[in-house]
Amino acid sequence: MAALMAMVCLVLLILPINFISASFCGSSAIPFSLETLFDGQPVLGCARPICFGSNETGHPATNDAIFYRINKRSDGYLRQESRLTKPFRPNDPRYSIKQTADCESTFQSDSCHGDNRWAAGIVPLMNVSAYPIALQCCSLETLRFSSDRGFITVNPGQIVIGGEVYKNGRQYAFDYIANIRKDVQMDGIVSYKLNIRRFACVSPDTSQQRGNHKNLTIMQDLISYMSNKV
Question: Which superkingdom is the protein from (predicted)?
């Protein structure tokens, strides 16, 4: 009986944790960083950029982000924003931009491939080298205009951070993690290959400025960016 109980405990240690308690950025936050711990566990960083994820009052559009602790370490986090998002104003451009993404109900995908999707969650595993990766993907039509920034591998002990992109002191874009692939070497070492994409993301205050040279320059930057010239 003791041997049987020990075997049951071992099986439980390597099975995926209940999906209900799994890590997820939520429908109003975007994955922007990933750290690979020395044991291969991923830590997914999520953020609400200034152009996405808020309701008309300036508060988060949703509060459905959730994270899990594995081996006493959180498998993800929601970045604490240093600046408050201002409430929407009349004719605010954010009214015309969907502020929440359409997300899968659980970790049902092995890839979030596509120019309008991102990897919003990674299924937590006690033994990351024993099982393939399972992702929870979100989609947003605004991302159809995003550009591919390439792939990068995150080995144990490394971290990749995207997020806000600035030019001449002004934010004009946001780099996010579109897709994640897990690679396991013969010796059990785990690394993750990320596809980074970039979409236009400017301050609502900046985009509402009219009739001045600064606003014209910003719009020119965005047009150039969309043409992949920036």
Answer: Eukaryota
> Tokens 């290959």 sit at which residue?
193
Residue 229 has pLDDT above 60, yes or no: no
Q: What is the mean pLDDT of residues 10-34?
A: 65
Q: Which of 75, 83, 55, 47 is nearest to 177 (CA)?
A: 47
* Whether the predicted model's global pTM rises above the 0.90 cut: no
DSSP, residue by residue, 146-183: -EEEEEEEE-TTEEEE-EEEEETTEEEEEEEEEEEEEE
- pLDDT for 186 equals 93
- Other beta carbons within 10 angstroms of residue 130's beta carbon come to 13
Interatomic CA distance for residues 21 and 15, integer angstroms: 14
